[in-house]
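Hey team,

Filing this mostly as a record. A colleague (T.K.) asked me to run one chain through the structure pipeline before their review meeting, and I want the input and output archived in the tracker in case anyone asks later how it was produced. No errors, nothing strange. Just documentation.

Input sequence:
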Amino acid sequence: MDIIPYTEEHRIFRESLKKFFEKEIIPHVEEWEEAGIVPKEAWLKMGEQGFLCMDVPEEYGGLGADFLYSVVLMEELARTGFSGLAVPLHNDIVVPYISKYGSEELKRKYLPGCVSGELISAVAMTEPNTGSDLAAIRTTAADDGDHVVINGQKTFISNGINCGVLVLAAKDPSVDNPYNAIDLYVVEAGTPGFEKGKQIKKVGWHSQDTAELYFTDCRVPKANRLGEKGSGFMILMDKLQPERLVCAIGAVAAAEWMLEITIPYCKERTAFGKPISKFQNSQFRIVEMATEIKLGRTFVEKLIMDHMEGEKIVVEVSMAKYWTTDMAMRVADGCVQLHGGYGYCEEYPIARAWRDARVMSIFAGTNEIMKNIVAKFMGL
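Output structure:
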């Protein structure tokens, strides 16, 4: 019995996505990987089809849809084998900061553009010397009348080059308690003092534009703050639950896709006069991977339903994020091995999938941080 109660509307949405990806995304993957970036036109096409920020209320241009539409999009995007289009980051991580914590003025100003694809969003938390330890950020936002003046540097920012709007974490230098000093501000690209640095070259995710960002006496209206003064840390903590769930959903779907393309290959590739799939070692490895994927799928689908019902599942999503992303890497490695030497060749999609899978255990809080979170809740 399926855990998730998909409707006919969800099914139609999935079919529309598949057709869109087959026509507008997959034919361009190699071109975009070589260029190192996805053109903004691809985002505009996503917006035209209603594939961006589906949960945003209709009054701001969205569909007012439930979270299952996002789940469908994440799964189908993972099945393209392409990581360059960071739509889940935009849809389910960054824009919800504005939807939930932004003033009415901010919502009306930014949400329609996020829905249409005219505004690509990013979130800037990580700094050169500060990864998962958010309380230790050094970027400052000093009071100056009805503005704050921001100074600092951010790094590893996904959508950093393409972004038109940014949710930025900065601290008030006049507040001693680091947990009370952090605020989140909406910053537009082109604001004086906000500069996009070089695009970072990565082992994988070649066309996902990851950048360094610099802020030098960057004046931002206090009206662009999300939530109450000093609430930034708590807002970040609140939104980490869906962020880690998004990671787990993507990891399971990616693992499923990697095995789906490996099994037919094993049936076709021969050694010693018979298909690779007929060797007991290959069969055992495939069954082991299929079992791990099924375990991950069952766990994640339960968490999706819990999340939609408003339950606090910080511990469980932390468990899921670390386990499913580690699992995806094990599957990627196993599938490359079953491909043999061809698995290490760029012309086979499993090679890119293997490269791209590695970072999942690092972003959105490293898997070691996930285990620390669980250990604290266990009283260890």
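Quick notes for T.K.: Residues 19 and 329 are 28 Å apart (CA to CA). The two ends are 37 Å apart (CA to CA).
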